[in-house]
Specification:
Layout (H helix, E strand, L loop, with lengths): L6 E7 L6 H6 L7 E6 L6 H9 L5 E5 L6 H14 L4 E4 L11 H9 L5 E5 L6 H4 L2 H18 L12 E4 H6 L11 H11 L4 E5 L14 H26 L5 H29 L4 H28 L5
Parallel strand pairs: 1-2, 1-4, 2-3, 5-7
Antiparallel strand pairs: 4-6, 5-6
Helix pairs in contact: 6-9, 8-9, 10-11
Length: 315
């Protein structure tokens, strides 16, 4: 136990035969249950875990019959924690990229009741740019910016890290069968937490790389996939939080902003078409384009500001 709270560590695994033993050996003693979720690995990951079960009574193995993705593996671990009335569930990757010494820092704000969900922030220190592979660093930064807009948690700076802690109330509230099952799981979860007004905290952690892990992440493919996911999640959050569950005028600002941006795009193409065809840009079209673009941008900024103010207490 940790400060009188039961702790379960959910360890999603896919082909982590070479890494999982080290992860299990480094697990802090205050973790009451280690829930390893083997996501239909093609190597000996499950067999290695079964060998450790003989001498580790706190070790639980869940085996997927079909590969579901990292989000699906985490959801299975969360459901186990919910069914066993665990106070706090944390996620630690099976590839050894999450430092065990950072775990108390993630747990403290949750067990003390300050927040419902805490997540690691690898970008907090100046060393992150040196330690994280550059393409992943910039991809993470881009997705984190989009996630701020989609989720409403404007203070969360590292949306893609999976090193997290979640309390019992959130575990019992969310429908884990509906959570996104692939690499967009952290983004999807943040949006769902915001709809239910759960408090979230960013916790500085140390980035861990080059410990023998084999990255399965294709950055550019995931970047576009998650970006599309975030657009859909943003629209879903606007409907659920600001129309269905409550009403806020920021909806009008977002609608007007998107409408004016669409109009400015059409006027922009018309402006260039007439410029090429006639040899000059019509003043009325140019003025209409500048007006629609400027007003649309202003409406979007006002909507974001309203969203930020509405959610400022959720940190």
């Amino acid at each position: 136990m940790y400060k009188d709270h039961t702790i379960a560590a959910v360890v999603p695994c896919y082909n982590e035969e070479s890494q999982i033993a080290a992860v299990l050996a480094s697990m802090p003693e205050f973790v009451d249950h280690i829930v390893v979720v083997d996501d239909k690995s093609r190597d000996r990951t499950a067999l290695v875990v079964e060998e450790h079960q003989e001498r580790m009574r706190r070790l639980v193995l869940i085996r997927h019959e079909v590969n579901q993705g990292v989000g699906g593996a985490i959801a299975s671990g969360y459901k186990w924690a919910r069914e066993h009335e665990i106070d706090v569930a944390v996620v630690m990757a099976g590839d050894g990229q999450m430092a065990p010494e950072d775990l108390p820092h993630l747990l403290d704000p949750v067990v003390c009741g300050q927040v419902d969900y805490s997540k690691g922030n690898r970008l907090f220190t100046g060393e992150a740019f040196k330690e994280i592979p550059k393409i992943r660093y910039f991809g993470n930064a881009a997705l984190s910016l989009l996630t701020k807009i989609a989720s409403g948690y404007w203070h969360v700076a590292d949306s893609q890290t999976g090193y997290t802690a979640i309390n019992k109330r959130a575990l019992q509230t969310l429908d884990w069968d509906k959570m996104y099952k692939r690499y967009g799981q952290p983004n999807d979860l943040l949006v769902r937490l915001n709809v239910y007004n759960f408090r979230v905290k960013d916790v500085p952690i140390r980035p861990v790389y080059n410990v023998g892990e084999m990255s399965k992440l294709k950055v550019w493919r995931v970047l576009f996939t998650i970006s599309w996911l975030l657009i859909k999640l943003f629209l879903w959050r606007m409907r659920e939080k600001y129309i269905v569950r409550d009403f806020h005028p920021l909806i009008f600002f977002y609608m007007l902003g998107f409408l004016l941006f669409g109009l400015s795009g059409a006027l922009f193409f018309r402006l260039f078409y007439l410029w090429i065809k006639m040899g000059f840009a019509p003043e009325l079209t140019a003025i209409a384009w500048m007006f629609s673009f400027g007003l649309g941008l202003q409406c979007l900024f006002f909507a974001m500001w309203f969203d930020m103010e509405y959610n400022k207490e959720l940190k």
